[in-house]
Structures are given as C-alpha cells and as structure tokens.
Write a structure and sequence with these properties.
heterodimer; A: 342 residues; alpha/beta; Nucleotidyltransferase, domain 5; 2 domains; five-stranded mixed β-sheet; 44% helix; B: 239 residues; 10 strands; 38% helix
Chain lengths: 342, 239
C-alpha cells in the first residue's frame, strides 16, 4: 500500500446502550465522534434492557452515522473502510450495527472490517497518545469487561488475566443499587466517595487462587451486602459515602496490585487503562501514583473515549484494515467474542 | 420504477428485485434462521444475477412488522444502511398485508396467521374486490387464535389461511371453524419478498414511504420490560 495515502475509516458501535459513529483518519486522528446515549431510558429499569436498547439503536443509527460523516465532511464513497463492533456485547444491539454496516459498506462499495469491542477500548489510547506504540500493558475495565492484556503488537493480544465472575463496572452497579445510589453505579460511587473515608470499613481484596492476574469481584460485592445487613440488624447508621469509598478502594487496590505485578513480570515501561471504569477518578489517581513510583509511563483516554464510542472502533479498525483484515457480507454478531479471536 | 424488497420477519429470508410490473428476481430460503448471515449475501446474489446497478433503485421495501423482533431489525437495519448511502426512501409494508398479497385475486377471505407466541397469532382479515384491490376487514394485530375463529365464524365466508402460524393452529381451526376453509399451497404459504415489493410499488405511488432515518419496525408489541413496568405502575396506582 502507498504509505503516503491517508486512510479514512467510519467506525460504528452498538454493542450495549450507546449508538455511536465516528470518522477516524489513519487510526489516530478523530474527525468526528457522535454518541447517542440511551442511559435515561435504561435508568428507569435499573440497568440495560437488551430489547429496549435494540429498539433505540435502530431508531438512531442513520442519524448518528449521517452526522459523523457530515461533521467529518465525508461522503460514504470517500471512505477507505467501515469498521463495526461485532462482539463482545449484547446480541440484539450488536446486530443493528453489524447489519447496518454490512449494507452501508456494500452500497458504498468500500471494504468492511469487523472489530472486537475490547480491542476498540484498548485502541482509544492510540488516539490521545500519538506516540504510543506496542508493546505495552493495558487494563480494560468496564461494565462488561475486566481484562489485563499485554498488547504485543497492533492487533496482537495476550490476555494475562480476566474476571472470574462480575466485571468491575458490574460490581459498581450492584453496590450502588444496594446503598441506594441507583444506576449507573460507576460515576455515582466515584462522586459520593469523595465525601467518604476509604479506610472506614475494611472489605476483602479478593485474590484468585492459582491465577496471579485474574480478578474476582462477586465476593467483595457480597461482603458489602453482608456489612449493610449486619449494620441494619444492629440498628447502626450506615454512612453511604464511607461504604462507597471503602468499596471503591477495595476494587482499585486489586486492579492496581495485579497490574503492577504484571508490569514487573513483563518489564514493560508503558501502562494504559481503558473502558468506562477507566474514568473513575480514584482508579486514575492510584494508577498514576503507582506508575510514577516505578518510573512507568501511564496512558489513559479522556472520559469521552473511555465510555463506549465509535472513534475507538475506527482506530482499531484502521490497524486491522492495514493488517489485511476484511469481513464478508456474512459477518455475524458474536456476543462472547474473545480478544484475539476472529 | 425499480424496487429492492426484503422480508426477514419470520423463519423465511426472502429478497426480490422488481421493475415496474416485472419480478426480475426473487430468492427465498426457508431453512434455519440465520438471517444475519444470509440476508446480505442473498441481496448480493440477486443483484449480480440481474446486473443491478444499486444506484438505479427508486426505493427499498421491507416487511416492517410484525414478526420476530430480531428478524425485523435485521431486515430494517439492512434496508436503512442501503437506503442511507443510495439516498432513496424506505417503504415499510405491513408483514401480514404482504402475506395476504401472496394470494392476490383469491375468492373469499384471505387470512394470514403468524405464530406470535404467548398463545397469540399475528393476523388480519382480507378480501380482494372485483378490481383485485386488497380490502382490509381486520387490520394486522396480535390476538388469540380462538378470537380470530369466532370472528371468522360470524363473518360466514370461505377462508384461505396461510403463514407460519398454520401448523400450530391447524388443529384448533379444524375443530372449531364452521365455515369452509383451505390452506394455501407450499409456494405461496410463507413470506415472499416479491409480494412485499409488489405491494410496495402501490405504496410508492400513493406517497407512502419514509426517509431511511425515520423508518423503524412496527413490532405491534411493547418489550417485556416495558409491559412489566407498566403493569407494576398501574398496580401501584390502583393500590
């Protein structure tokens, strides 16, 4: 390929409750990044309802894509490729993006690239750190995923550890509900924790037996619920901010510990975080401090690129595209798609 | 006028290209439900066979519901993606009406029945007048098969049934329907994109089409979560 040519990729993302489209130049430069969030609707139900999410995606997809193209001043035919999230995620929502992207790329006569959602989150770091290149270590933490990944090269991943049960973001949601903060739990716990004492209550730091980098958060969640019950039985006052801050610290401690252990083992000098929970201020601060102490460069995307978005899909699609990856018209949604699988 | 038509509302996946009063191509598969993998390759296949230049299409038609929620969305997302790039409108044809159009010109009542689960069928009651225009006696809806049979017994006319609801409803029809009836033969008994397209041509002339961004399936039903939430809130209001 001509190395001087610029490549423009339309990214499309619909794996959960965000309908998103973006145009990304050469995998790093965001020309547009449109996100239509459904969070208000799902808040009524205390979490994402797949059928409702699917219905909303199909109502919004054209407007979101059209706006992304308009803002980037591109016509469909001028694109070099369309990249779409085909997993992991909720099957109904995924199918909207996949079906739309296949038809759109077919009519525009441009190649289609299927993108792994987690690969997208990791690639968000390429956007805001222009000089970032593999190899590096990355922690992906969101409502659905908790992965400690070594990025050996573009598109080449080694999963070092993952959660054995709940994702970190899921634990935030469940604990937030239990202490009456409601959905979405992540930002709410982050906010209220600023008023609380993170050492007020000691919750367990779960370590998974034989796997040094794996995570487990369901035990921690149960410990919080047990604490709340016992306080109620004793008619003692529950300090919401203290519970939130102490729970958050327990999550952050484990995430930092496992990440630092892996950094030492692999000798990497660069560490990145990604995913919705990567916006959490306590996690960022703790990672920043731990990296500084070890003289390790710490990368993190800004909040808009941590949440589900399509710019990250466009960035990941660029590297897949350059490596020769192309999806056929039979591309399907793969809800349990693993990182590194095709 | 050239139209591409798509129906993935049920077990059948079907695509067709129509030019004025000619069906140029139709591809219908009723074998395992893998619409997300098969629908676009089918569109590509008939487009190649008829040397279709997509930019010569005037509109894209889709069976707009009811049907399988996922199936409807695969069809609708596909036509929304195509029509977006081609800058042409989407024509949403009610699934039950399109099924009835399989039997254009039939005498007596035409009654499509689709399995709607939760002990209901998606159905409607239709008839063709002397000019072969479709008359709607009962618009498409989700009702219990027993209610449909009561209505048909009251109407007292001959009925032809078709649709994927026939196998599950056959027994109760045979036991409780008092009017003469038949079941449509195999080649016209399920969704056909040709019928969707032919009906869409009429809609197009009547100006019944939408911008692709405005199109959404007509599910005829709310999601389970919405229903349960409404029931809960109604319950709380009555309490």
């Amino acid at each position: 390929m001509d190395s001087k040519k610029d490549y423009y990729i339309l990214g499309i993302e619909s794996s959960c409750d965000e309908t998103a489209a973006a145009v990304v130049k050469n995998g790093r430069e965001v020309l547009s990044n449109i996100i239509s969030s459904q969070i208000d609707i799902h808040t009524l139900y205390g979490g994402v309802v797949p059928e409702i999410a699917s219905r909303k995606h199909i109502e919004r997809i054209n407007q979101v894509v059209d706006e992304a193209l308009k803002e980037a001043d591109m016509k469909p035919e001028e694109l070099d490729a369309v990249g779409v999230t085909y997993g992991p995620g909720l099957v109904g929502p995924l199918l909207i993006g996949v079906s739309f992207a296949k038809a759109f790329s077919y009519a525009a006569n441009v190649p289609l690239v299927g993108v792994n959602h987690i690969e997208g989150h990791i690639s968000a770091n390429f956007i805001e750190n222009p000089e970032l290149e593999p190899p590096f270590l990355c922690l992906v933490v969101s409502g659905g995923h908790t992965h400690l990944v070594r990025v050996n090269d573009y598109g080449k991943y080694e999963i070092l550890g993952m959660t054995q049960d709940d994702a970190a973001g899921e634990a935030f949601d469940k604990v937030a509900r239990a202490i009456g903060l409601g959905y979405p739990g992540g930002p709410k716990i982050d906010k209220v924790s600023k008023e609380g004492d993170p050492d007020a209550i000691h919750f367990p730091r779960a370590h998974v037996g034989d796997s040094e980098y794996d995570f487990s958060f369901s035990g921690l969640k149960s410990a919080v619920l047990n604490y709340l019950n016992s306080m109620e039985m004793k008619h003692e006052e529950i300090v919401q901010a203290d519970v939130a801050a102490s729970f958050q610290k327990a999550v952050v401690d484990v995430l930092v510990q496992n990440s630092m252990k892996a950094l030492e083992r692999y000798g990497d000098k660069t560490f990145a975080i990604a995913g919705g929970v990567a916006s959490n201020s306590a996690l960022r601060a703790a990672m920043e401090k731990a990296c500084e102490e070890r003289n390790i460069r710490f990368c993190h995307p800004s909040p808009v690129l941590c949440t589900d978005n399509a710019a990250m899909i466009g960035a990941a699609a660029y590297y897949d595209f350059m490596a020769g990856s192309r999806a056929g018209l039979d591309l399907n949604a793969v809800p349990n798609l693993r990182l590194g699988e095709r | 006028m050239k139209i591409l038509a798509v129906d993935s509302s049920g077990l059948v996946a079907s695509v067709a290209i129509l030019e004025d009063d000619v069906l140029l191509s139709e591809y219908t598969v009723n074998y395992k439900k893998t619409h997300s993998q098969t629908l676009m390759p089918m569109v590509d296949e008939i487009a190649r066979m008829t040397e279709l230049d997509l930019h010569t299409l005037d509109a894209i038609a889709v069976a707009g519901g009811p049907g399988s929620f996922t199936g409807l969305r695969i069809g609708s997302s596909t036509v929304k993606g195509l029509a977006d790039v081609l800058h042409i409108p989407v024509i949403s044809v009610p699934t039950v009406d399109a099924l009835a159009y399989n039997l254009a010109g039939a005498s007596g009542l035409v009654v499509p029945i689709m399995d709607a689960r939760r002990s209901q069928v998606y159905t409607g009651i239709f008839e063709y007048d002397e000019k072969n225009e479709l008359i709607t006696h009962m618009e498409q809806c989700a009702i219990a098969i027993t209610d449909l049979i009561t209505r048909l017994n009251e109407m007292g006319q001959k009925v032809t049934f078709l649709g994927d609801g026939v196998p599950v409803s056959k027994k109760v029809i045979m036991e409780t329907l008092n009017v003469p009836y038949t079941f449509a033969p195999a080649h016209i008994s399920r969704q056909r994109a040709g019928a969707v397209g032919a009906l869409a041509q009429k809609y197009y002339k009547e100006g019944k089409y939408t911008d692709p961004s405005e199109h959404r399936p007509d599910y005829l039903r709310k999601s389970q979560a919405e229903r349960e939430r409404e029931e809960k809130m109604a319950g709380a209001a009555n309490a």
